[in-house]
């Protein structure tokens, strides 16, 4: 068959147009067909982060109509899970669900710990799931009505405070309070919040800096009382408890959070899709109810909002850890 110049030109133009379409094709749709979305958690099953992740997985599965599974990867204070996520394909199929310890732990662990992941460059913030508070709790028999009374006690006699471990956000909160109150306090680190609260109930320490979820049942039963919260504003979940800043300890004002991260390099369009789907979950009344039962207030928002928060907290906690010389024993 004879091919005319005009026909060849039309063929060449079609090929070029086809090539242009291929080059401009969008990234693969998220979630990928036939593949589950995996939520990686740096704690064992049953822990606070694991419960948050499983609530999210259940609700997100309903939004996506695709399987969403939770993968527990405990170790190195959550850094192993961060490293696993960072080294996964940047397609939005593997996501990290983590508490605020993601930005505190790198300042207290050796750099090589947990796979030497750089949380500020190897991960992409997607969305802040929630915010929470820390709170000093004590036994009613101690007779401490508030944090001012705790500071006054510490000026007269030895006072100890328990935390779930050296370098934890609770330890940082305790040191901030010690500095703000200008009193001597003895730090007693435990391997988790539960043993710290158990020793508090046994009158082995004066006070414990805890998260709300861990202390909630003891507060409801009257076994323990909260004498302040670390948030700048009162927690809507404990509106009757004054902030530490209200009580004169203005430098003790920070809140905790849970958030979702993707591997660095994940296309912005994919990150946006993931964030939109999770925001749909967070808008559901049932999600808000279940998060509140875990001591968390739903937040949501854009990847940019969360990235700003992560950077600010990372820098702030770095300064605090260096100032107090905090390290893991």
TrEMBL record:
<dbReference type="InterPro" id="IPR005064">
    <property type="entry name" value="BUG"/>
</dbReference>
<comment type="similarity">
    <text>Belongs to the UPF0065 (bug) family.</text>
</comment>
<dbReference type="Pfam" id="PF03401">
    <property type="entry name" value="TctC"/>
</dbReference>
<dbReference type="InterPro" id="IPR042100">
    <property type="entry name" value="Bug_dom1"/>
</dbReference>
<protein>
    <submittedName>
        <fullName>ABC transporter substrate-binding protein</fullName>
    </submittedName>
</protein>
């Amino acid at each position: 068959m004879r091919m005319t110049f005009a026909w060849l030109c039309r063929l060449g133009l079609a090929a070029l147009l086809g090539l242009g379409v291929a080059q401009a094709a969008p990234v693969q749709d998220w979630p990928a067909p036939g593949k589950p979305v995996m939520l990686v958690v740096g704690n064992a099953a049953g822990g606070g982060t694991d419960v948050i992740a499983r609530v999210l997985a259940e609700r997100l599965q309903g939004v996506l109509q695709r399987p969403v599974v939770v993968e527990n990867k405990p170790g190195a204070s959550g850094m192993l899970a961060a490293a696993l996520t960072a080294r996964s394909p940047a397609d939005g199929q593997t996501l990290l669900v983590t508490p605020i310890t993601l930005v505190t732990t790198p300042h207290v662990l050796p750099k090589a710990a947990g796979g030497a992941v750089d949380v500020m460059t190897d991960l992409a913030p997607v969305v802040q799931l929630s915010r929470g508070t820390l709170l000093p709790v004590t036994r009613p028999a101690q007779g401490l009505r508030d944090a001012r009374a705790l500071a006054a006690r510490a000026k007269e006699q030895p006072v100890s405070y328990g935390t779930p471990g050296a370098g934890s956000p609770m330890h940082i909160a305790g040191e901030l309070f010690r500095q703000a109150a200008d009193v001597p306090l003895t730090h007693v680190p435990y391997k988790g919040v539960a043993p710290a609260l158990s020793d508090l109930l046994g009158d082995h320490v004066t006070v414990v800096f805890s998260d709300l979820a861990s202390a909630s049942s003891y507060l409801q039963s009257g076994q323990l009382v909260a004498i302040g919260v670390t948030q700048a504003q009162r927690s809507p979940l404990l509106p009757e408890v004054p902030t530490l800043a209200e009580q004169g300890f203005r430098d003790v004002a920070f809140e905790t959070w849970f958030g979702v991260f993707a591997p660095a390099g994940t296309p912005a369009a994919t990150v946006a899709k993931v964030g939109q789907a999770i925001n749909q979950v967070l808008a559901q009344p049932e999600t808000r109810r279940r998060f509140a039962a875990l001591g968390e207030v739903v937040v949501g928002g854009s990847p940019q909002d969360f990235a700003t928060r992560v950077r600010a907290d990372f820098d702030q906690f770095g300064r605090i850890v260096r100032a107090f010389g905090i390290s893991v024993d």
